[in-house]
Each structure stands twice: as structure tokens, then as C-alpha cells.
TrEMBL record:
SMART domains: Robl_LC7. InterPro entries: Roadblock/LAMTOR2_dom (IPR004942). It comes from Variovorax guangxiensis. Residues 16-108 form the Roadblock/LAMTOR2 domain. This is Roadblock/LAMTOR2 domain-containing protein. Pfam families: Robl_LC7 (PF03259). It comes from the Bacteria.
Length: 131
């Protein structure tokens, strides 16, 4: 099996199609990046000047902090983290797979609907977990 960062080529191609679809379908989303848990980008779609490699690295750090918070507070396994700002937000959602853990990173302007972006990130996580 050929793989990219522990993910099969089939799963990588699926991830690429799905992040493009997410960016195209959701108003206000400027970037979607699927990355490994250690911060390497696997698939991305951007309509802004976001650098997928930087987004992937940032997402890795954010979810690591989320892990510590969820463990210390005894809240169970972290699934997602949302960062709200004065001009937009970012959603980081975990994908738990047998072969490798992934993180979906979505950046959006304040014109996007946070609940819809979070829902679509979770939906994408479920499909990537099954591919």
C-alpha cells in the first residue's frame, strides 16, 4: 500500500475531494486542511492566502492543548476545538482512524455559521474515519 504520512492514496484523494467540497459549499470558509496529528498537511483547499502547512502545524498545537484541557478536567476524549475571534473562527476536529489520527482544520470569516462549519467538519471526520 502506498501512503502519504500514513494515509493511503485512496484516503488522501478522498480527503482532497471532500475539503474542496466543504470550501465550495460553505459561505465564509476560507480554508480547509486535513492534517496528521503531528502537523503535516495531507489535503487542502484554500480561497485565501492561508498556507496549508502552517494551518496544519497550528492545528496540531491547538488540539494538543485541547487534549490537556479535556484530560485535566476529566471531560473524556477531545473531539473538537473552536477558536472564536473578532473577525472569524477556526474549527479543529479529530479523525480517529486505525492507521493514523488526523485533524480537520477549517478557517472561516465571521460571515460563516459556526454551527454549520462544526457540523460539516464532524461529518467529514466520520467519512474520513471510514475510508
Amino acid at each position: 500500500m502506498n501512503s502519504i504520512h500514513g494515509l493511503s492514496r485512496t484516503a488522501t484523494a478522498h480527503a482532497q475531494r471532500e475539503v474542496r467540497k466543504l470550501v465550495d459549499e460553505l459561505t465564509g470558509v476560507t480554508a480547509a486542511v486535513v492534517a496528521t496529528a503531528d502537523g503535516f498537511d495531507v489535503a487542502s483547499a484554500c480561497v485565501s492566502d492561508a498556507d496549508p502547512a502552517r494551518v496544519a502545524a497550528m492545528g496540531s498545537s491547538i488540539v494538543a492543548i485541547g487534549d490537556v484541557v479535556s484530560q485535566e478536567a476529566r471531560l473524556g476524549r477531545r473531539e473538537s476545538v473552536m477558536v472564536l475571534t473578532d473577525s472569524g473562527f477556526a474549527v479543529f476536529h479529530s479523525v480517529h482512524r486505525r492507521d493514523t489520527d488526523l485533524v480537520i482544520n477549517v478557517l472561516a470569516r465571521d460571515s460563516a455559521v459556526p454551527a454549520m462549519v462544526a457540523y460539516r467538519a464532524a461529518q467529514l471526520a466520520r467519512t474520513l474515519a471510514e475510508v
